[in-house]
């Protein structure tokens, strides 16, 4: 879950950054859909109606303004004048005034870091960059795989404990020369912001998806529920591995996987999921993980952390925290995948799927 796309900051780009087109349904029983781009990925928003006191264009504009602010103005590591980019260039030591939104996201990120014993770390960017997965392609012309000495040097620049945050007043400061990358939580936060906006204008049924992070609420006009899908890990066209039963309840769902962003060298596959403790891509067999919780920001960050932790450790922590978590693992011998889930995920699976916690399914 990274900001994978580089953007050119031209007037033409800014004018076309959001392609706002409501796809109007042919009948009242269908839904309205809004698609576009943000945070280096795609988003899709579906609603069943428009509030009486707001037009479709006004609703689209409200969404546009919020997504643009979260991405380009506040949290992008690609935009040199975003608030986060300016903080990353700031000196070590002094408190830096920031927006309430940026302070809130960093505070949530730090809480998830504590909860996962540092497996979620927003300062891991230098390692991500050196392995060639971030906004900065470190040491151009060097071998793609860093040396042990390089990794050790870069690890000295990583550590979420070297970052402090204040919600009131909203401020950040570095205790060492760290660089913050919020790509493991920002898309989830964006989905939460849009859900709060739709709630505020009176919509009680919607499906929000930003780069795979979801906020879902209500039912469709025909009385059926929204049906989020769990994707089978793979490089081809997306395939449904399982479905999530929503039944109209408000949910946040996020997933993370290692099957879309990786490189291979000398027959070895290197994932974009970097372990901050080793400084290297993870080597376990966890292919994807999905989390259901109250906010997409929390689910987003936990899914990222769990992909680094691996199934055994993440499963145990999920059960300890009463989390709904779903894991897809690569088989060690042969092709295909096995899946398992925590006890709290059972209620979100179809009846023929929800046998018991830790169940295994073959695909």
UniProtKB/TrEMBL annotation:
Gene3D superfamilies in UniProt: ApbE-like domains
Cofactor binding comment, as recorded: Magnesium. Can also use manganese.
Domain of life the protein comes from: Bacteria
Catalytic activity: L-threonyl-[protein] + FAD = FMN-L-threonyl-[protein] + AMP + H(+)
Cofactor: Mg(2+); Mn(2+)
EC number from the UniProt entry: 2.7.1.180
Pfam families: ApbE
Residue numbers spanned by region Disordered: 336-363
InterPro entries referenced in this protein's UniProt entry, alphabetically: ApbE, ApbE-like_sf
Example of a GO MF term: transferase activity
Family, per entry: Belongs to the ApbE family.
Protein known as: FAD:protein FMN transferase
Source species taxonomy: Bacteria, Pseudomonadati, Pseudomonadota, Gammaproteobacteria, Pseudomonadales
């Amino acid at each position: 879950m990274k900001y994978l796309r580089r953007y050119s900051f031209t007037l033409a780009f800014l004018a076309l950054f959001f392609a706002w087109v409501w796809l109007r349904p042919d009948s009242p029983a269908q839904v309205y859909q809004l698609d576009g781009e943000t945070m280096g990925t795609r988003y899709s928003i579906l609603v069943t109606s428009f509030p009486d006191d707001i037009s479709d264009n006004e609703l689209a504009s409200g969404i546009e303004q919020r997504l643009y602010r979260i991405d380009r103005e506040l949290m992008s590591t690609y935009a040199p004048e975003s608030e986060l980019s300016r903080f990353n260039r700031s000196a070590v030591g002094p408190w830096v005034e920031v927006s309430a939104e940026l302070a809130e996201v960093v505070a949530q990120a730090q809480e998830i870091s504590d909860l996962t014993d540092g497996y979620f770390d927003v300062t891991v960017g230098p390692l991500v960059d050196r392995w060639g997965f971030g906004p900065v392609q470190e040491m151009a012309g060097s071998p793609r795989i860093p040396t042990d000495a390089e990794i050790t040097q870069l690890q000295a620049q990583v550590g979420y404990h070297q970052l402090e945050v204040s919600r009131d007043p909203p401020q950040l400061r570095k205790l060492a020369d760290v660089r913050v990358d919020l790509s493991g939580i920002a898309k989830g936060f964006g989905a939460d912001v849009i859900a709060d906006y739709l709630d505020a204008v009176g919509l009680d049924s919607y499906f929000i998806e930003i780069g795979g992070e979801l906020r879902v609420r209500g039912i469709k006009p025909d009385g059926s529920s929204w049906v989020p899908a769990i994707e089978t890990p793979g490089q081809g066209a997306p395939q449904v591995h399982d479905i999530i039963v929503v039944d109209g309840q408000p949910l946040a769902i996020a997933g993370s996987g290692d099957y879309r962003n990786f490189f291979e060298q000398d027959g070895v596959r290197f994932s974009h999921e970097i372990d901050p403790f080793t400084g290297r891509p993870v080597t376990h067999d966890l292919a994807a993980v999905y989390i259901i919780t109250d906010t997409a920001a929390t689910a987003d960050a936990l899914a990222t952390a769990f992909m680094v932790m691996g199934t055994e450790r993440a499963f145990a922590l999920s059960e300890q925290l009463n989390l709904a978590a779903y894991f897809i693992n690569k088989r060690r011998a042969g092709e295909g995948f096995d899946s398992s889930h925590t006890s709290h995920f059972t209620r979100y699976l179809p009846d023929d799927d929800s046998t018991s916690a830790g169940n295994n399914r073959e695909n």
